[in-house]
């Protein structure tokens, strides 16, 4: 225990755990203007909002691991921030081989973010930082590497529509969520809430966030406004088109079915559903994951699929229909680098194009 590191929630550690060395109250360019305690607290609070709650929780865990390492190796508080290159590289090296490369990268980012937040000098050179993370990724145990997600396909979604009871409030909400995610090439998490108690209309999609509009040629377009995403706190927009009304996979039909079954106000979560015990609940990640697993385990011929498989499946669906790569990239809101890596890691997407004769 230390007065510098009071007991608090993981997401509060970045802010509440303080370095032993006080940050500078003035700079050389403004040495006649010293900051008060209240102003420093306000600066820390404002900078802290630049990270999402989930990121702060992740960083809070990394910061805990860093201080546990320092405690075990008797590194005094005043040498933990600013941390020396030797101490930092020794910390990351101690994690190598025990954790995945992405986990170690998050731990490293947590220590760096803690320094930034508390205005402490970061002395680790970028070249060393990068080399350590690359080495950690290569030395990560095979058990820490997740298998690649195979895509959902339209055939699997059709099977789901037959195996689910779309008159049931939960199934109607989940199926609408699956089809909208698939055809919008959206992350499933963008259409759900992490837990039913954490619904926040300023962060999560509501019924008012959906609109059926038209493009310049008068064709119908389903428009979804995401109030906040991992890559944009200002929110993003995703779109898809309705299908033939007789299609079991029509996202508009699935959404209409859900709305008829689960009536709620405009400010409610987009996929709220009537719980058997009474009342309406926002659709949570746990509920969707549990239902997908139940369906797949009950059908021996259905391959295992996860939520992220919908995004992969949507990408494959449009590419196989002949939609240009750059359009699909825009729909999926990918950066150029990420989209290229994504394609390279999913040969199933490239395979049909590689088979075409010039």
UniProtKB/TrEMBL annotation:
GO MF, any single term: DNA binding
The UniProt record lists the keyword DNA-binding: yes
InterPro entries the UniProt entry points to: Integrase-like_cat_sf (IPR013762), Integrase_recombinase_N (IPR010998), Phage_Integrase-like_Recomb (IPR052925)
Keywords from the named record: DNA-binding
BP GO annotations: DNA integration; DNA recombination
Protein name as it appears in the record: Core-binding (CB) domain-containing protein
Lineage: Eukaryota, Fungi, Dikarya, Basidiomycota, Agaricomycotina
């Amino acid at each position: 225990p230390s007065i510098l590191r009071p007991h608090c929630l993981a997401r509060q550690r970045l802010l509440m755990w303080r370095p032993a060395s006080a940050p500078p109250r003035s700079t050389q360019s403004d040495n006649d203007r010293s900051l008060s305690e209240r102003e420093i607290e306000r600066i820390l609070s404002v900078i802290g909002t630049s990270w999402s709650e989930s990121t702060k929780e992740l960083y809070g865990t990394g910061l805990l691991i860093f201080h546990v390492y320092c405690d075990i190796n008797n590194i005094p508080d005043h040498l933990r921030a600013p941390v020396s290159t030797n101490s930092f590289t020794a910390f990351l090296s101690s994690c190598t081989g025990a954790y995945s490369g992405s986990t170690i990268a998050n731990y490293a980012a947590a220590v760096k973010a803690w320094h930034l937040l508390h205005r402490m000098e970061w002395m680790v050179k970028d070249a060393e930082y990068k080399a350590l993370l690359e080495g950690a990724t290569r030395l990560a145990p095979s058990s820490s590497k997740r298998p690649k997600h195979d895509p959902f396909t339209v055939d699997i979604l059709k099977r789901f529509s037959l195996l689910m009871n779309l008159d049931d409030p939960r199934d109607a909400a989940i199926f609408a969520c699956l089809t909208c995610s698939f055809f919008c090439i959206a992350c499933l998490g963008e259409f759900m809430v992490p837990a039913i108690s954490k619904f926040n209309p300023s962060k999560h999609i509501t019924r008012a966030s959906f609109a059926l509009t038209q493009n310049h040629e008068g064709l119908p377009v389903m428009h979804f406004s995401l109030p906040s995403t991992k890559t944009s706190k200002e929110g993003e927009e995703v779109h898809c088109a309705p299908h033939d009304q007789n299609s079991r996979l029509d996202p508009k039909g699935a959404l209409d079915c859900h709305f008829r079954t689960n009536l709620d106000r405009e400010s409610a979560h987009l996929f709220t559903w009537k719980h058997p015990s009474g009342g309406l609940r926002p659709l949570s990640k746990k509920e969707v994951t549990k239902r997908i697993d139940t369906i797949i385990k009950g059908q021996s011929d259905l391959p295992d699929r996860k939520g992220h498989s919908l995004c992969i499946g949507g990408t494959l669906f449009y590419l196989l229909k002949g939609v240009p790569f750059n359009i699909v990239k825009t729909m999926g809101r990918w950066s150029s680098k990420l989209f290229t890596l994504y394609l390279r890691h999913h040969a199933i997407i490239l395979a049909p194009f590689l088979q075409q004769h010039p």
